[in-house]
């Protein structure tokens, strides 16, 4: 690229364009119906030429271009949300609100922010609605192609890396995608299920250890070793020659590397290029409130019901405090068997239930207080020196 | 335009004086107004739009409807910048013809919606300033409405209002068609006659309060028999 700039090498016909603004745009526009058929698969993988023009040496004409692009858009794209994902011993929970807002107006009160990619992976999207919708489709396509070419599913970390690489050419433009990939890695075999339960036991033991995330990083490196062994396992299964020693090695290796290749995972990918792995990830304008609730209630050894209740509570609190989140809660639970969607719950109901609970609590407190006063009254009568404080 | 410099330090307005030449950047967009509405029923769909074309303080035309017929079962409503509306509909019609010639059948409403999403996102960095709503019948003959944002994000709805008066109409539709925030109400399915009457009432209200909406209302009613049009006059002031 640098050599290209120094030599002034013109890549496509586009660069030898006239200096006036309108005809160039017309040229680009009228090409669109036919552009799709020629190279439809790669059409979205690179930003249009005018963005790369900024890198070229400034000339008399290019200075006009740089001042005109990106164009002042007279409308806003949808933003503002609360999404969260966390892992626990029995899988992954992905939850999100359903409000799509656009600079003060709610464009859609029932949008779907959690989209399944394949049977064991869902993605929580936040940021600009159109960008998320399209990039999720592109990611689904690429993962399916990977699965067909390599005969195994791409891991969550691999998917995160793939998405991050695909978004990289758009760094600096106003594409805004913040996706949390939540899923279950690994093949759906009996060995991996057993190994996951063993992982769970080990994880329980080190639950108090603050270096849990460091250990899972180590496991990511150990994962490469795991991959080859798992493949062997698969091949041996295919040829109907189940080698018990291979599967024993499998579980042994898994025990030595916490997490190994299979198990629940959450990964965060941002269009800036940021990639995060962890146990609890929350994104959006309501995420600080959600983090507060999640940090308080999260334990690795939670049951499914506890985890679901925690996620719902976190989103509810976030929607209460954040103006850009609200309406309903969507919840997905992913296990080794795949994802399952919970019913969408209207937060209006939750709010009324909360009010009822508060009313009941106040009544009970009032009763307690009266009882206490009554008791003190009885005690106080017998002792003339006691001070009656009501 | 009131700029910050018009007010002095003590809060009183400064005396008006010539501040020097001001550079107005050329904007490739203009806002031509107009409202579009679509409603989906059990076996019908309605797409309605007003017919006023305005810009700033002027009205360019009183007879410029914003519904465009795409196929026998699909109508699209586009409001926003009229230049982009015209080009976008030309591109959609060209792609429909190409599809028909390659696949020997017309595109379904869902397919048109998906295609429009990719067409719009193709110009993500210089978008079409158009708010689209597609209304039509899906493969099973049920009404379908797809609403879009200018860069291609879309979803299927039961009803949607777009354009200049959308913020006024959408809450009314939420209440009357979606029965939102109504307690103890009997939720009857929407009949065609009731839907048409509702659309007329709703546009009359919009014309009262939105300057860019008025002149006439054109309703396209899509049923399995075909597409029927109705024109209703609105306020012309």
From TrEMBL, chain A:
SUPFAM superfamilies: N-terminal nucleophile aminohydrolases (Ntn hydrolases). Residues 354-375 have a biased composition (Basic and acidic residues). CDD domains: proteasome_beta_type_5. Keywords: Cytoplasm, Proteasome. This is Proteasome subunit beta type-11-like. The gene is psmb11a. One of its GO terms (biological process) is proteolysis involved in protein catabolic process. It comes from Sinocyclocheilus anshuiensis. It comes from the Eukaryota. PROSITE patterns: PROTEASOME_BETA_1 (PS00854), PROTEASOME_BETA_2 (PS51476).
TrEMBL record, chain B:
It is found in: Cytoplasm; Nucleus. One of its GO terms (cellular component) is cytoplasm. InterPro entries: Ntn_hydrolases_N, Proteasome_bsu_CS, Proteasome_sua/b, Proteasome_suB-type. The keyword Nucleus applies. It holds the Pfam family Proteasome. Component of the proteasome, a multicatalytic proteinase complex which is characterized by its ability to cleave peptides with Arg, Phe, Tyr, Leu, and Glu adjacent to the leaving group at neutral or slightly basic pH. The proteasome has an ATP-dependent proteolytic activity. Non-catalytic component of the proteasome, a multicatalytic proteinase complex which is characterized by its ability to cleave peptides with Arg, Phe, Tyr, Leu, and Glu adjacent to the leaving group at neutral or slightly basic pH. The proteasome has an ATP-dependent proteolytic activity. Belongs to the peptidase T1B family. This is Proteasome subunit beta. It comes from Sinocyclocheilus anshuiensis. The lineage of its organism: Eukaryota, Metazoa, Chordata, Craniata, Vertebrata. The gene is LOC107699161.
């Amino acid at each position: 690229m640098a050599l290209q700039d120094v030599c002034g090498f013109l890549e496509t016909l586009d660069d030898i364009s006239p200096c006036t603004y309108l005809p160039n745009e017309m040229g680009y526009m009228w090409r669109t119906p036919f552009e799709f058929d020629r190279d439809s698969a790669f059409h979205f993988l690179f930003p249009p030429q005018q963005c790369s023009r900024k890198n070229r040496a400034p000339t008399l004409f290019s200075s006009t271009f740089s001042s005109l692009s990106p164009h002042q858009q007279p409308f806003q794209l949808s933003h503002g949300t609360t999404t969260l994902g966390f892992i626990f011993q029995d899988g992954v929970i992905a939850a999100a609100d359903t409000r799509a807002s656009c600079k003060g107006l709610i464009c859609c009160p029932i949008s779907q922010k959690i989209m399944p990619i394949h049977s064991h992976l869902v993605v929580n999207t936040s940021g600009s609605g159109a960008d998320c919708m399209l990039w999720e489709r592109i990611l689904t396509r690429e993962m399916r192609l990977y699965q067909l070419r390599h005969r195994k599913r791409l891991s969550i970390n691999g998917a995160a890396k793939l998405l991050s690489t695909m978004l990289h050419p758009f760094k600096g433009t106003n594409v805004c995608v913040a996706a949390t990939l939540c899923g279950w890695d690994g093949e759906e075999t009996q060995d991996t299920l057993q190994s996951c339960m063993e992982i769970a036991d080990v994880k329980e033991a080190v639950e108090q250890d603050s270096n849990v995330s460091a250990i899972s990083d180590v496991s990511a490196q150990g994962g490469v070793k795991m991959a080859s062994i798992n493949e062997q396992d698969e091949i041996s299964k295919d040829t109907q020659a189940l080698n018990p020693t291979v599967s024993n090695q499998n579980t042994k290796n898994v025990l030595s590397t916490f997490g190994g290749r299979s198990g629940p995972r959450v990964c965060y990918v941002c269009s800036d290029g940021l990639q995060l792995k962890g146990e609890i990830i929350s994104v959006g304008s309501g995420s600080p409130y959600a983090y507060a609730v999640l940090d308080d209630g999260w334990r690795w050894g939670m049951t499914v019901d506890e985890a679901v209740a925690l996620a719902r509570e976190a989103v509810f609190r976030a929607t209460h405090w954040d103006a850009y989140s609200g309406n309903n809660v969507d919840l997905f639970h992913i296990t080794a068997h795949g994802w399952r969607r919970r019913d969408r719950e209207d937060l209006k109901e939750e709010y009324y239930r909360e009010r009822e609970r508060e009313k009941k609590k106040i009544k009970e407190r009032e009763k307690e207080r009266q009882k206490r006063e009554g008791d003190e009254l009885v005690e106080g009568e017998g002792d003339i020196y006691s001070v009656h404080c009501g | 335009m009131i700029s910050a410099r018009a007010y002095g330090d003590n809060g009183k307005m400064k005396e008006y004086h010539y501040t020097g030449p001001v550079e107005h950047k050329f904007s490739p967009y203009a806002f031509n107004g107009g409202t579009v509405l679509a409603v989906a029923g059990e076996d019908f769909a309605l797409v309605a739009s007003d017919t006023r074309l305005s810009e700033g303080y002027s009205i360019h035309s009183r007879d410029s409807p914003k519904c465009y017929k795409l196929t026998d079962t699909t109508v699209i409503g586009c409001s926003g910048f009229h230049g982009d509306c015209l080009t976008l509909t030309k591109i959609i019609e060209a792609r429909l013809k190409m599809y028909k010639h390659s696949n020997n059948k017309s595109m379904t409403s869902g397919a048109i919606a998906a295609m429009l999403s990719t067409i719009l996102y193709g110009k993500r960095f210089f978008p079409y300033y158009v708010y689209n709503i597609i209304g039509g019948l899906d493969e099973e003959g049920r009404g379908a409405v797809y609403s879009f944002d200018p860069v291609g994000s879309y979803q299927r709805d039961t009803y949607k209002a777009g354009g200049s008066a959308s913020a006024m109409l959408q809450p009314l539709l939420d209440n009357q068609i979606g029965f939102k925030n109504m307690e103890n109400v009997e939720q009857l399915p929407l009949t065609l006659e009731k839907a048409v009457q509702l659309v007329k009432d709703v546009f009359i209200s919009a014309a009262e309060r939105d300057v860019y909406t008025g002149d006439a209302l054109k309703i396209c009613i899509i049923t399995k028999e075909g597409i029927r049009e109705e024109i209703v006059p609105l306020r012309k002031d």
